[in-house]
Structures are given as C-alpha cells and as structure tokens.
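Annex B. Sample input.
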Amino acid sequence: MYTALYRKWRPMTFDDVVSQPHITSTLVNQLKEGKTAHAYLFTGSRGTGKTTCARIFAKAVNCLNPKDGRPCLECEICKEADNGTLADIIEIDAASNTGVEDIRELRESTIYTPERCRYKIYIIDEVHMLSNQAFNALLKIMEEPPEHIKFILATTEIHKVPMTIVSRCQRYDFRRIRQEDIVSRLMYIAGQEGVSLNKDAASMIARISDGAMRDALSILDQCIAFSDNITQDTVSEAAGIAGRDLVLSLLESLVGSDTAGALRIINELYSKSKDMPRLCDELIGHLRSIMLIKSAPESRELLYCLPDEAVKLEKMAESMSMERIFYQLDCLKDCSEVMQRSSSKRTDLEMCAVKICCFVESSVAKSGSRALSSQERALEARLSELERRLDSLSHGEKSHNARGVSPDREPSAQKIKYEPGEAPRSSPTPSANRVRQPFKEWEMVLERLTEVNPGCAGALKGSQAVIIDNSLCIEVESEFFLSLFKKPENASSLRAVVKEITGSSYQIKARYARQNQPLPAGQDDRLSMLLENARKENIPVKTD
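Annex B, continued. Sample output.
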C-alpha cells in the first residue's frame, strides 16, 4: 500500500525536525537531565512539527535505551510507538471529542498506571476545539496530575485556549519553516525517492507551501505522480498554479493599466483550469516583493521569488509609486476575501483587475493621489452633509437679517440640542413646509449593512430612501422586510449603520412600495397636516 510522503518521511527523532532548534534542543536537554514537565503546550501554524515533536517526546521519555535524550528507535517501546500500537501513548482529536463527557472519561482513565511504559502520555491535538465545560473538566487534572501522567497539547489557535490552561503548561511556539530549509529537505527526499527535482522547482514548492513542511511534501507527492522529472512547469501543472511567465505578464498588464491584456490573460488561465484564488495569492506575493524592493532595496533576503523574477519586479517597482502599490494590494486582498465565499471567482478577479487598471488610468492616480476606501468615502459623505446643513443654517440667518428680524427674537425659533458626535440638524419646520430630499448615502448604507446584517440588507434589495425633515423614509420592494423591521435587533442595526455613515440619527420609517405608492407632490404634506390636526383633537387614527 502506497504511503504519502508526508507520512513516510515524518521525522522519527529530534534531529530530523526542521527549523525548530529552539524547541528540540530544550526538550532534549530536559530528557537528558530527567527534568521533564507534566504538561506542554505546542502552538504554531499548520505543518510546522507540533504533533511530530509531541510523538517524538512521548517516545523518548519512555524509551528503554535513550541516547542523549533521544529515542533509540530500536527497543520495543520505540517500535510500537512508531507503529501506533503502544497503549500508553494516547492521541486524542479534540475536534471530534469536544464535550465534557469525553474529558471526564479521560480523567477517569488517568487513575490507572501505565501498562508497559514509565509514563502514560496524553497528546490532545487541536485542543482549542474543546468546549468551555471540557476545559474546566480538564483544568483540575492538569493542575495536579498523577506522577505517571504527562499531557502534551497542540493547537494552531492559541488565543482560543483559556489562560488557566496555558498557565499550567510549558509553552513552545513553533516557527514557520524557513524556505531554504524546505528546499534542502525536498531535495534530500527527492534523491531518496529516485526522482529528479530541479532546485528552482523546489523553491517554487517552498514558496507555495508558506512555511508548512507537510504542504510542501503533499505538493511534491502530486508532482511525482505527474512526472519523474520535476521542473517549474511540472509544479505549475500539478499544483494548479499559474505559470511564472503568465503571472508576471498579468502583473505587468495591471501595472501598465492594460485592461484588455489583463482580462485576456485571466481568461487564458481560467481556460486551463487554473485556481483563481491561488492566482490572486500569487499576485499578492509578487506585489509584496515590489513593495519591499521599493521601500527596502537592501533587504533582498526578505523576497520570496526567484532571481530572474526579481529582475522583472525591480523594473516594475521603478514605474510604480507606493500609493499605487498599496492600492493594488488592497484591491487584491479584498478580492481574495470575497472569493472565499463566492461562487463566481473568475468574475471577482476580473472585476478586481478592471478596478486596478481604471484607477491607474484615472486623473486622480496620475496626480499622485490615492483612491478612497469605503470608510473614507463614508467620512467624506458625512463632511459633505455637515457642510450642506451649515450652509442652510447660514442662509437662514441671512434671510432673517434681510427682513430685519433677529433669529433669536423670532417667536417660532427654537434652540437646537446636539448629541455628542452628532452633526447639527436644522430646526423642525411646520408640516406644510416639509422638505423631501434624496438620501444620497443609501447605497453606502446598504453596502455596510451587508457586512453587519446580511439578511436585513438582502430584504432591502431594490429599495429607495428619501429624507423628510428628520425622518428617513424607505420604500421597499419586499414585504418580507416589513416583518424583519419589526424586530428590534434589525431596526437597531439599520439605525446604527445610518449613524455610522452619515453621523446623524434619523427616525426610520418603512412602507411597501407597491401597496403604498408615493403620493403626488403636495398631497403627502396635506395628509400630514390632517394627521397632525387629528392628533391635536384626540381623534384615533389608524395609519397602517
């Protein structure tokens, strides 16, 4: 039966572990001196050796003939541990054993002494997946375990592990594996497997794996299945990534504002079944290199690219400003996030390419300015609204002064109260003089509401909004929104988004557009006057 490379070449001793000397040397010294702790916490990104080191440590601490803190790999304990048949080394997947009952069973089993070993070792992988009740159940036994028990916890998300657990363990942070170490390991394994591996191809695999040795070996496994002579083209074909030349050509089109060329290359890559999210990540990686070349030209060791690629990236960096680099990085990062939950990834990437090219061609970009983000557009809209209202107030004062009447002495004048952080609004006017004006920020409100409350935003599709005095009136195409709007959490989220975008608090009203057609000009004001008079006379009126 064929064994995957990442399993076949899993390190058996601490000497085989790559790029983690700060951890392996510490563990070896503890084993040599017999000063091992009762609980360890291994944390770091995927494929960096957390579970591997846990297994080696469990094997070494129970080895019958240890050699300088390392397992001998020859005794029965080592052989059974490598085969996974040693009953005293228990591996638990916390992702499938999250409940408190699972941990209670673990606690009950700790009272029994080991069958054959010196210590009974519990390796709990992805420990952050445990529930709060399970962590509480684990806490006491970890604080004062029996002398024959040791715990090794492994996690990729240390921030989800309670501090009460972390404080009872010796914590070791695993680093991402260096690119040169991955290349060296890949070349060695390829030689042992009798496969020809080009060093540039190994560098490409190391760059794709992003510091994870397991990912690198999985990609190498794919390449071996594709061809025994592995080159850069082999890696591109087997791993489903774009060819180097096409990626650089696409980047040159984006830098040179060649919209047609960029779309043509994306179409070519898509027709070859290239992975669009990975293509986006490659573009982000190259733009990162351009950013580093532009900002720190002396730090070439930080670049994750081949020498011939660096030459082309240097030429691109000369023609780009930092503002343009940041803008393109922002666009591609936003596109990468959108593609994670999108079913039309090709369209998302094409939209991003057009957006980048249009920005470069615009007069704003040529003048050296940068495009505004969504938050900055919202702030600009709030400032514009504030300026408009201040202008209306100043015009009102001028009209009073023109008639020789002071605003402060006019009988109908009222003092305006401002809430902290709220833009001033003009004084309320009689209902006969109500002002209707379009709500220009409605599209931005819907865009922001999609992030805050997607269900509510979906029900507002096709809606329109106008401002009447201090009320925001919404005409909706879906009756479903009216039922949603009755729920306090939906109404409050809409008010919060409107306040965030405009800086003002409005009374929000909604009506079904097809059932309640807009009234002719002037008729809405007359209806409001009738309603106001009815309220003054205490006449009950049903407005639904």
